[in-house]
Amino acid sequence: MGFSVYLEGTSPLTASKSEAAGERGAMTSIRDIAQAANASVATVSRVINNSGYVSAETRARVEAAIAALEYTPNAGAQRLRSGASRMVGVVLPALDVPFFAILAHVLERELFRRGYQALICCTDESADQEARYISTLLSQQVDGVVAASVLADAGQYRRIADAGIPIVAIDRDLPDLAVVSIKADHALGGRMMADHLLALGHRRFAVIGAPAHSPPVLARVQGVVDRLAEAGLQAQIELGRVHDFDACRDLARVVLTGAGRPTALIGTTDIAAIGAIHAAIGMGLAVPQDVSVIGFDDLPAARYVLPALTTVAQPLRSMAEQAVAQLCAMMAGQALPAPADLALKLVQRDTTAPPPPEA
Amino acid sequence: MGFSVYLEGTSPLTASKSEAAGERGAMTSIRDIAQAANASVATVSRVINNSGYVSAETRARVEAAIAALEYTPNAGAQRLRSGASRMVGVVLPALDVPFFAILAHVLERELFRRGYQALICCTDESADQEARYISTLLSQQVDGVVAASVLADAGQYRRIADAGIPIVAIDRDLPDLAVVSIKADHALGGRMMADHLLALGHRRFAVIGAPAHSPPVLARVQGVVDRLAEAGLQAQIELGRVHDFDACRDLARVVLTGAGRPTALIGTTDIAAIGAIHAAIGMGLAVPQDVSVIGFDDLPAARYVLPALTTVAQPLRSMAEQAVAQLCAMMAGQALPAPADLALKLVQRDTTAPPPPEA
DNA sequence: TTGTACGCGTTATCAG
DNA sequence: CTGATAACGCGTACAA
User: Fold this and answer.
1) What is the dihedral of CA B283, B286, B292, B293, to 10 degrees?
2) CATH number of this structure's domain B186-314
3) Is B84 helix (H, G, I), strand (E, B) or coil?
4) What CATH class is the domain A12-73?
């Protein structure tokens, strides 16, 4: 009876609370369902987390109450208590660029499959933005971070690493931070582009594209340069600052206008190559009869152009999958899985052919 | 002196805690900086939130401590305390589809600009996934939701609405849920496509594309049908289930092979139209001399194809901006801003021309 | 102007 | 097997 009196003392309070559901409906808490199931909060917690012993009968009562009251655990409270948020920050420059959109898509999907929510952060290539995003991620206590940012400033990521949060870098390095870095061999990719065109018989090359501040892009260019040097050849190189269709097309136009017009145009990306195709055709040149064009990435757009673009495919989706696998291992404190290979592949379509006879 | 003794009593505890920073570094809390600044937690909180009175001197000390200890507020605790998470759920089918990627990009950027973190959820068009995402959003206590999902099952969103969380729908309706819906006039868009081709003199039409379960797509088709009916004409209609380049190309190929070949192909989206161009050219037909093609959306890819695609542009970015503006007003409990108009625009490029003479 | 103390919803520890 | 209870970090009445 004394027990009953104690309950009566607290219940009016709870009643008045559920009454005040006016604006932001007060969440039904573990306590509400404890009361409804005639159990203690501890027992309810045990049911929810499958931890400790709970009799089948009690469990049934609790589960019924959970279903009836449409209980949803409060993630904020769980996080406060446990320190883990089941959230992962995904930092990238933009989503309206297919390369990063595809990356983000696969990352998000794989993370969610394993019970993590992705916190996607678009830095717009602004260091300022990036710093603010990092603060947010810290504040949100993310359990891990995937960084696909192009910014050179690794300083911000030090704050993450210092907090003991594991980081995986995609398509870039994060020097001095003990992290995993997932990326294709871009220098090799450059060599592959040059190789293909050399084999077709080309001797006059130009490399056009952007963005010049991106390490992967520069690595590709270097690969081209190295391979051509081995053949005793050089390339005209025109790199722009912004990675934009129009800008790349204009770059190609300049290259095609100069004396000793190249017979092979190497785009640093598919977009650059597509711009080059437009430039050539706009000048009355035939692709690939007058000029060959090759790209890099093999984005969906590579198949949309006519003629369809020959390009070097990057295993974007595998990269994302592998990044998640590695990060999850780090977050769980397990041994890192062996890195699967990220082989590049030449995809020959319709924009490359032997150079015209007179060249 | 008694004061000093009191401090000594508590400090060893704090010291031992910061020592145990082993695995997941224990966050520096408001208490740590209170101690460092020789102030109380209340004062520190006041400084952080700019609420209540704080002397300039104290404020300076506190801010110095915050900077020195690299304090970051614990979002989980803030949320637990305040009930607001400063997070917004963004539910869409996929990110590897440019239409949604662009939407997500602008939504994310605009939300962050206003202090909200986007929680991007890709449902992959699976009702099951969607339900699980909704649970997560509830669990995370998001302050609002933007839904661009294609799923017809509005039932899940009732759970959100029931929790008193404001919802804005983009590019779809959410019937029976008192929400704002941001979308272009797709029926009018269909009419515009038909109008343009009729004005050029076309009389034999086909509509091809996907996905057939998308209300906006169906509205466009209906617009085409209505406009053609006014001209006493009909169209052959072929809608597929998956919205995929190859599938759409195959659809167009079938249409172009049949008797009474159409002179005008209307794609339900840019991707469908691009597929149609490939089909036509692959069959030896010239675009636009033999067959005209028009698309819908004006995605970047519309400019990549050759010839460049004539299409009806949808103000994607304005839609996203407006969705955020509306949602923020709802979350702040303010009056909804007047909806700016979302005018469609015909973008004439190189895939439409008068039909061939013999037609 | 500043400090104390309570409670938000959870989980984990400890008694029963 | 189950229940009471102490934190987690923060914001805020209320007291000083």
Assistant:
1) 60
2) 3.40.50.2300
3) coil
4) mainly alpha
Closest Cβ–Cβ partner in A124, A300, A306 for B109: A124
Q: How far apart are CA A119 and CA A123, in angstroms?
A: 12
Cβ of B245 within 8 Å of Cβ of A304? The answer is: yes
In angstroms, what separates the C-alpha of A178 from chain B's closest C-alpha?
15
* Nearest CB to A80; choose among B80, B95, B96: B80
pTM of the model: 0.92
Same fold, B83-183 and B186-314: yes
Q: What is the pLDDT of residues A134-160, one digit of tens each?
A: 999 999 999 999 999 776 667 789 899
Q: Reduced to 3 states, what is the DSSP secondary structure of residue A295? A: strand
Q: Which residue of B has its CA nearest to A102?
A: B96
Is A180 in a helix, a strand, or coil? strand
Q: Report CA-CA distances (Å) from B155 to B134, B145, B158, B176.
A: 11, 15, 5, 10
For chain A, the structural domain boundaries read 12-73, 83-183, 186-314
**Residue among B74, B163, B165 minimizing CB distance to A141:** B74
Beta strands in A196-317 (DSSP E): 205-209, 235-239, 264-267, 292-297, 310-313
Place of tokens 């305390």: B81
Burial zone of A10 (CB within 10 Å; 0-12 exposed, 13-18 middle, 19+ buried): exposed
pLDDT in tens, B51-99: 878 888 899 999 999 999 989 999 999 999 998 999 999 999 999 999 9
B31: closest CA of chain A, how far (Å): 15
* Across all strands, nucleotide nearest A56 (CA–C1'): D1
Q: DSSP letter at A47?
A: H
Phi, psi of A206 (to 5 degrees): -135, 145
Give the nearest chain A residue to B26 (CA atoms). Answer: A163
HSE at residue A1, side-chain half, CA atoms within 13 A, is: 0
pLDDT tens per residue, range A285-317: 999 999 999 999 999 999 999 999 999 999 999
CA distance B187 to chain A (A): 26
Which residues of chain B have a CB within 8 Å of the CB of A124? 109
Q: CA of B32 to nearest chain A CA: how many angstroms apart?
A: 16
Looking at every residue in chain A, the average pLDDT score rounds to 89
Query: Taking CB atoms and an 8 Å cutoff, what residues of chain B touch A305?
Result: 304-306
Interface residue of B71, B88, B105, B309 to substitute, partner A, most A CBs within 10 Å: B105
pLDDT tens series, chain A, 359 aa: 222 222 233 333 333 333 333 345 567 899 999 989 999 999 999 999 888 788 989 999 999 999 999 999 999 999 999 989 999 999 999 999 999 999 999 999 999 999 999 999 999 988 899 999 999 999 999 999 999 977 666 778 989 998 999 999 999 888 877 678 999 999 999 999 999 999 999 999 999 998 888 999 999 999 999 999 999 999 999 999 888 999 999 999 999 998 889 999 999 999 999 999 999 999 999 999 999 999 999 999 999 999 999 999 999 999 999 999 999 999 998 989 988 889 999 999 999 999 999 75
| DSSP secondary structure string for all residues of A76-89 | HHHHHHHS--SEEE
Among the partner-chain residues A96, A133, A303, the one whose CB lies closest to the CB of B105 is: A96
Report the C-alpha gap between B337 and B315 in whole angstroms. Answer: 18
Considering only CB atoms, which chain B residues are within 8 Å of A72? 135, 138-139
Tell me which CATH homologous superfamily contains domain B83-183.
Answer: Response regulator (3.40.50.2300)
- Strand, coil or helix: what is B278? helix
Listed by range, residues with Cβ under 7 angstroms from strand C are A 26-27, 29-31, 41-42, 45, 48-49, 51-52, 71-74, 77-78, 80-82; B 38-43, 46, 52-55, 57-59, 77, 80-81
Yes or no, beta carbons of A24 and B164 under 8 Å apart: yes
